[in-house]
Amino acid sequence: MNRIAGNTAEQSADPTQLTRMTVNGETVEREVSVRMLLSDFLRHELGLTGTHVGCEHGVCGACTVMINGRSGRSCLTFAVQADGADIRTIESVADENGDLHTLQEAFRDCHALQCGYCTPGMIMNILSHLEADDEIDLSDEGIRELLSGNLCRCTGYANIIKAVRQAADTGNWNRT
After folding, report:
1. Concatenated DSSP letters of 103-122
2. How many CA atoms lie within 13 Å of 171's alpha carbon, on the beta-carbon side?
3. Which residue of 54, 63, 130, 134 lies most exposed, with the fewest beta carbons within 10 A?
C-alpha cells in the first residue's frame, strides 16, 4: 500500500538532482532542488507532516527524524544528502493497525505533552537511542542530557522524563 503522496511542490529554477531514499520502509525517488531541505522534502513532496519545522536552525529538534538509524535534524540536511539513506519519521512509529508504540504510550500515560509540536522530534530522538541499544542514563539528569537537543516550551520536562524512563524500563520498545 503506497501511503506517500505524490509530488505537490512547485518547481523552482534551482538545479535539480534525482534523489532516491527509503522513507518509512518505502523507496521514493524524486527530482528535487539541490537546495531543498529534507524537512521540506518530507513535508511537501511526500506529505509526511508529522515532521515539524520550528526554528529552521537545528536548535529546537522539532524536525528530528531518523537517518540510517540515528537521530538527525531534517532542517539541516539537504534532501540530496539523504540520497540512498533510510529515513524514518514519526509516521512510522505506530504500527499499521494504529496501535501506539510503547514510547508513544508512555508519553500518553505520563501526560508528557501539551501542545505536541515538539513531541514527534522527541520521540524520534529517544527511539533512535533505544533502538540502537545505547547505554542510557535513566537518572533525571541523564534523561535531561538525552533530551537536551529537543526544546519544549509548554512542559517542565518532568512528565517527559517519567515517560522516557517508563518506556526504557519496559524493554519492549524495539518493534522494528
Report:
1. HHHHHHHTT--SS-SSHHHH
2. 0
3. 134
Contact 43, 56 (CB under 8 A): no
Eight-class DSSP state of 78: B
Burial (Cβ within 10 Å: 0-12, 13-18, ≥19) of residue 107: buried
* Contact between 28 and 93 (Cβ < 8 Å): no
Amino acid at 127: L
Domain annotation for the chain: domains and CATH numbers: 16-92 (3.10.20.30), 102-170 (1.10.150.120)
C-alpha cell, 122: 522527541
CA pair distance 107, 163, nearest whole angstrom: 5
Q: Is 49 exposed, middle or buried (0-12, 13-18, 19+ CB in 10 A)?
A: middle
C-alpha torsion sign, points 3, 76, 87, 131:
negative
Full-prediction pTM beyond 0.70? Answer: yes
Residue in the structure block whose three cell numbers are 534532501: 79
Lowest mean per-residue pLDDT among 12-16, 53-57, 69-73, 131-135: 12-16
Contact criterion met (CB below 8 Å) for 38 and 74: yes
In this structure, the number of other CB atoms found within 10 A of the CB of residue 14 comes to: 11
Position 119, amino acid: T
